[in-house]
Amino acid sequence: MNIRFRLFFFLPVFFLLSTKSFAQVKWVNVDSLYAPLPASVQVFKTTDSLDGKPFIAYYVRARLKDMKLDFTVDTTLGRRLTPSKFYEKNNQPLIVVNCTFFNFDKNQNLNMVIKNGKLVGYNIHSLPMRGKDTFQYRHPLASAIGIDKKRNADIVWTLTDSSKRFAYAKQSLHLEFTACLKDWILHPSFNYIRNMNLVLLLVTF
User: Is 131 exposed, middle or buried (0-12, 13-18, 19+ CB in 10 A)?
Assistant: First the structure.
């Protein structure tokens, strides 16, 4: 029997741990607690303290090249769903992982999301700074993790626009790219970056 397992990514909150902190914890394989699992998927857990404070964490290792694993995404535009609701909505996938920042006021993702080659979530490139009547804005340049049709994972810097079919992406952050971003924010258009030979992001999930 050919069984496919779905690994579902909604909205990773990524925990950025220093090498020193990461070395303090001991990861234990807990596959038996979630059996049966595909041979290419492993689950690890730690209950060690982190910097002297209580700490419980999990991580999952999954082989991208296993064609029985189906990596896919979903978004929350206009709605607010818990992980349990995503689990129910997406036919009870093997894993549900939080993968973008989220705006609770507008119930929307704040990062680029691509599903089946189509942009379904966009970066927020202008964020107001503190103060109700502030005229100052931050302009973060977002990155994205993608898995292509050949099951290769990669990370790139990205620009998105809801009027454009595809996102623009670049592997490294050069000065001309940041200068382009500044001009693009002041005058929203892809004319600035179309002539810079940027890599067109065609990630398919």
Answer: exposed
Give the CA radius of gyration of the chain. 19
Q: Token match 């810079």: residue?
A: 196
The answer to whether residues 40 and 64 touch, using CB atoms and an 8 Å cutoff, is no
pLDDT in tens, the chain (205 residues): 444 555 545 443 333 444 444 556 789 999 999 999 999 999 999 998 877 888 888 889 999 999 998 888 888 667 778 888 888 888 888 888 887 777 777 777 778 888 888 888 888 877 777 777 667 777 777 888 888 888 888 888 888 888 888 888 777 765 445 555 555 554 544 444 444 433 333 333 2
Pairwise CA distance, residues 97 & 155, whole Å: 17
Say what the pTM is.
0.66
Dist. CA 38–CA 82, nearest whole Å: 25
